[in-house]
Structures are given as structure tokens and as C-alpha cells.
Design brief:
about 375 residues; alpha/beta; Alpha-Beta Plaits; 3 domains; 5-stranded mixed sheet; 14 helices
Length: about 375
Amino acid sequence: MAELPRILIVDDSRVVRVSLIHHLKGHYEVREEGDGEEAWQSLVLDPTIKAVISDLQMPKLNGYELLERVRSSKLRRLQQMPFILVSGEESEEDRDKARHLGVSDFVTKGAGSAEILTRLDNLFALADAKENLDAGRERMVHDPESGLFTRKYLELQAAKGLAHASRQASDVSVMVLGFDGYPALAARLGNKVAEDVSYRFARMLAGKMRQEDNLGHFGPGQFAVISPGTALAFCATFAERVREAVEVARLTVQGQTVSVTVSIGIASVPTDPVSSASAFLDLAGQRMQVAMQQGGNRTESGGITPATRPISLHHALELLAAGRAAPVVPHLPVLGRQVLPLLQLMNQELGLALPVAEIERRLNERNAQ
């Protein structure tokens, strides 16, 4: 037999408590306290209590004060708990005070079983409906697995960004990031593990974002960032930093070292004319697909940002340490000229016979080609 919901009855009169218990018997389990202070301790310590029926006039802590504590509690279950006050000859002003403090309902002293049970049943039905509504809203906003925003919520945020940009004549940008070869990664590691890998990189991305940016799902192995007030050039710079960070990162999964790259598509208003928030996201997604089709591990923003950008010496060394020499090769002429002074110093200080002049000549030839 299922356990009955537990109701806390608070009244300094033993006679009143016995009467209320008689009304609730067989429908609810009852816990009773003779004062608001003891009732407060019970509410904090006993999470099985689902509702309160309290008198107004009590020593130590009256019904108003108990209600105020419950509604201002840090415990969410207390903030939303059904709370019924038993009223006698209170004025309408007293009732308004109770409503302001957050009372759920009133019952008059001497009310019969039918009325009390009806009030409780209605409050529990209302609480269940609100909980289901909140759960549905939460599912719309956050993905239950990753905790990231859903695609639908991102569209709402993009719509807000577009509206604000239109009113304030400002910028808003969208970046859609996708892992290159994600289907193959999922086939090799399994869908669940591949998702976990992508979520770990998504958390890294979240750590690099501004507070006003919104990160969420776009598709399997794909994420989107809505950046209000961000112009295309700044979004492209951020996208390149993210791409480079993913490129040199290494994860150990099931005893295997996993290395991945990402392709990133960017769209920005007012640079890109779009008709809706959905079209805005889709344009960035289409550009991500273009970047993937061109070989991946690149950023595409509609031709405004060049596909190949210079890399720093530090980033080149990170790539080499990660066993990724191929992305460094196109940048050898520039990188080589940066290290020539170091090679010359090594020649001088260590008495080496490095062909520095020949290295410089070949770097110049490569650059000309």
C-alpha cells in the first residue's frame, strides 16, 4: 500500500489538533506540533512533510511568522509547500497580510472534513501541475544529459539578440562548431562515449565564453554560441582561439588517446542579412558544413575571414608536441624567420656549424612558392 502524504498540523490547542486529525484520518498521515517554533524545526528536518495547516495565534512563533519563514527559506520544497491558515475572526486586512506573505489558502475554524480535504486536494493538484510545467520548461531550456541549452532555446536567444541589435543598431553573432568526422568517432567509440567527449570540449568552450553568451546544442557533435554585441571580426578571432585549443587538446578515453578537430561557421548581423532567428543559426550551420567539406579544422565566415590564418610559434610548438606536424608545414617560412635569430645565437654560443644562411635561403624560396 502506498504511503499517505504527510501533513503538519500546527495549533496550540490539543482539541483543535485532534479535530483536524480526525478530518484527515485515512486520507493523509499527520504530524502535529503545538507551536510555530517547533513546527519550523520539524519542517526543516522532515522532508516527508508535504503541506502545513496552521493556526494564526500561537505563542513563541505565530502563524504569520511561521509562514514568512517558510516562504523565505532557502529550501525550495518549503518555498513552494502548500500552506493553509486556519482563520477565526480575522479581518480582511489580516487575510491580505497572509496573502502577501504567500499563504496558499484559508479554512475557517470548525470546517468539516469535506471542505478541508477539498482544499488540500486542490492545492496538491495545483502543485503537481506547476511541477510538471516547470519540468517541461526546464526540458525546453536545458538538455537533461549535458545541461547545455537546447536548440529551441538558442533560437529564442537568437531572436532576442536580433531584436536588440535592430533597436540599438548593434551587432550580434552566431558561431556553430562541429567536430570533424564525428560519425566515425561515434562508430569507433560508441555514441555515448562520443557524446561524453563532445561534452567535455563543450565545457572547455563554456569556460572561455563571456557571461552574456549562450552555449547550446545544434546537432550531434555540434554546438552553437549566441554572442550579443559581438561583431564578426571579434567572433572570428574567438572562433580561431577555440579551434586552435581543440586542435592541440588530447583526451584519454577507454585507454585510447583521442584527438579531434573542429570546423566552425560564423554568421553576424548586420553583415549577414537574415530573415529570422532560425535562418540566422542555419546560415552559421551551413558555413560550418562548407568548412568541413573543404577539409575541416578551419573557420568559415562567408569569405570575410581568410581560411588560413597565421599561427604563433607557441601554437606551432603545441601542435608538434601533440604529433600534429601537418598544420604547421604551411607556416614554416614565417615561423622559420622567427627562429633564425635563435639559431644564429646557438651557432655563436655553442660553437656549432649550423647552415643558417642555407636555411634562410630555402625559407625564402618556400615563401616565394
